[in-house]
Amino acid sequence: QWYSYKLDRVVFKHHKSHWHIIYFVIPIVAYYTAANFFPIFLFFGILPSLLFWHKRLDKKIVFTNRVKMFLSTLIFIATMQDYIMINLYSHTKFSILLPIITALVVSNLVSFISFIRYKKRAREKLDSIENLKIIAITGSYGKTSVKSFISQLLSLKYKVYQTPRSVNTLIGIVQDINNNLPLNTQIYVVEAGARETNDIRDISHFLQHQFA
Hints:
This protein is mainly alpha-helical. The protein contains 8 helices and 3 strands.
């Protein structure tokens, strides 16, 4: 969730570099080298450290539908892999990356297809609102303040709706339109954030806003 479900960001761009070592490198090395002692390392090392890390989080983990789908797919693929390796090849060491990558590909594919449909529904809703004007706001900083300022000014004469404070990604905007945008809105003020290359392009192509 934190790294937009992108594998390269998960593996190489943690907020804290030592997380790579503690939660990625050490468990993998231990799994292949500790042999029968790995369960001890798992239950008395890895799991307690994860619980301690989770307890200190200001914003707790949220198990969204996408996360649940990824985890259920991961468990299913890992179980099938282990069953086949044990019963057909009598192996007790299993691939770690194969189930993770497969689950990631499957969950991303399903999410991509679902988002395309969700995005189309949002575009149809925008098109159905007669004479709707859209104002898109972006910048290095001050986006939220300018959005609120413009919305308050225009609300004196028009029916204005603005994206909630934390919504400024394409996914968030699409969700906001589908779930919250009133059908009697005359002016929709949208905050557009740029976290990755082409974010603004994608938001602009989708919104087709009249003012920026």
